[in-house]
């Protein structure tokens, strides 16, 4: 059984004050939920205060990025050890915004994943195709390459969560169809099986891309979807709580 996982990726949004105000509203809306995991990835500068506010709650502290070295002369970077020290449990790696704006390659992503696993941090590894790649029938080639290179020499998948995030669906309101999600997740599962055999069945695959309370019910009821990574809609406590409580949203579809 794979435990469902709903993760908020706040990107470069919310000051410490705003983030704490979000939690005041959000925690009571989800505090009795214990059959799924909930994660929040605030900015680095919010990690300590949000981490303190999340103590004794059912919500996991996540980070949006990391560097692959342990320490040293790397101005502006943050190491896995530093995240661990703040009780971060999951790190998002390979988000398409990092690939696009910060030129992160598959090789860099692979080093980051390894560095996190070495420090016993869990990883949410994002993959997904651009619209041009989809339109030229390269979706599977791209996913295969991202998986093979991103997970090169990573022999134990216990700390891994995958996130399928078609780039064209992120922040655009253009959610992937149930058929597109099902097909991509099945392909990702098959690739994971080639790498990890029966252990691949334990790896959760999240969907990300314009998830809202209005579309969450059908997304969560898609084969091989084990949760969601949510950007825009996770900034609002009521909307994100409705996404976490996805079974209750059927009437909205
Ligand atoms: C994301 O940034 O991972 C994401 C899926 O964003 P949005 O939900 O806004 O499309």
Would you kindly provide a written description of the structure presented here, covering whatever features stand out?
It catalyses: D-glyceraldehyde 3-phosphate = dihydroxyacetone phosphate. Involved in the gluconeogenesis. Catalyzes stereospecifically the conversion of dihydroxyacetone phosphate (DHAP) to D-glyceraldehyde-3-phosphate (G3P). Helices cover 38% and strands 15% of the residues. Strands 1-2-3-4-5-6-7-8 form an eight-stranded parallel barrel, surrounded by five helices. Helix 2 links the parallel strand 2 and strand 3. The protein has a single domain, classed as Aldolase class I (TIM Barrel, Alpha-Beta Barrel). The two termini are 27 Å apart. The protein is globular and about 45 Å long. With 253 residues, the chain is an alpha/beta fold. It contains ten helices and eight strands. 41% of the residues are buried. Phosphoenolpyruvate binds next to strand 8. The site of phosphoenolpyruvate has 13 residues, from strand 8.
